[in-house]
Specification:
The protein has about 280 residues and is mainly alpha-helical. About 50% of the residues lie in helices and about 10% in strands.
Length: about 280
């Protein structure tokens, strides 16, 4: 919980389920006064009958600050923690993924479920819920800092698109993400049946499924998928156009006797659920 309207609304709704709830506040130490916000989150949790834990992480200023802060935050939170992302966050995420060249997985955005239980709500809904509950959200000034690309998408790109389209574009993008997420899930289930180490199976499968099977197999132990270029280099090995290929992280893929094998650099932790058969 940051103490903003979205996370406060999530807390209110979580408590309303009747389950035991714990609110986590993570102080990144990136701006003055951030530690004091934990007190406001603690007070809100106590008022609603929820537990509270304050955590802190160290994030050095520099490039990719948002991504590094998010990674640091996720590293200290429980793996099943829920977040207060809304449909507006979803629209921003999809547009950010689009401009960095993401495929269908990125354009599907975040998946609704226990991890993102209020993804169907809008920011206006969470603000209204906080007002009804008598809670005053924390206003984070970093949410208006134009140095961060997400803020520019939120305050400049989406309003401009809404003006051009003469409609609520954020809602449209969020709904499209939900539809693409269903397509993504279907394609993933089909790709899971393709053996990513069998050259014959990859050549027989439709190219989109073969690429997906390879992407699953080549995903790093940290969960980072390979680039589209890396997958295409391995597809060249499948098509017998090359004997081997090197991709991100120093991973080398080679072909022998109709099968693919990958050689990871020393220290790369194996993930049997992703890497498949050797």
């Amino acid at each position: 919980m940051s103490g903003g309207a979205d996370s406060l609304a999530l807390l209110v709704l979580a408590v309303a389920t009747g389950r035991a709830v714990t609110a986590f506040h993570v102080d990144h130490g990136l701006r003055p006064g951030s530690a004091a916000e934990a007190d406001r989150v603690a007070a809100a949790a106590a008022g609603l009958g929820a537990g509270f834990r304050a955590l802190s992480v160290e994030v050095e200023p520099g490039p990719n600050l948002e991504a590094r802060a998010r990674a640091a935050r996720q590293a200290v939170l429980p793996p099943d923690a829920s977040t207060g992302h809304t449909a507006d966050d979803q629209a921003e995420t999809v547009l950010l993924n689009l401009i960095r060249g993401a495929g269908l997985t990125g354009l599907a955005g975040m998946r609704a479920g226990p991890r993102h239980p209020i993804l169907a709500l809008r920011r206006a809904d969470t603000e209204a819920l906080c007002a009804a509950a008598g809670l005053e959200p924390v206003r984070d000034p970093s949410n208006y800092d134009g140095r961060f690309r997400r803020n520019r998408v939120r305050h400049e790109v989406l309003p401009l698109l809404a003006d051009v389209a003469e409609r609520d574009v954020a809602g449209v993008v969020a709904r499209q993400a939900g539809l693409l997420g269903e397509d993504e899930a279907l394609l993933e289930s089909l790709a899971a049946a393709v053996d990513p180490t069998s050259v014959a199976a990859l050549r027989q499968a439709p190219a989109p499924l073969a690429r997906r099977a390879l992407r699953r197999w080549l995903t790093s132990p940290e969960g980072y998928p390979p680039s589209a270029g890396a997958v295409e280099r391995v597809m060249a090995v499948v098509r017998l156009e090359a004997k081997g290929a090197e991709i991100e992280g120093g991973v080398v893929v080679s072909r022998r006797s109709g099968r693919l094998s990958r050689q990871d650099p020393p220290g790369l932790r194996a993930r049997p659920d992703i890497l498949g058969r050797p």
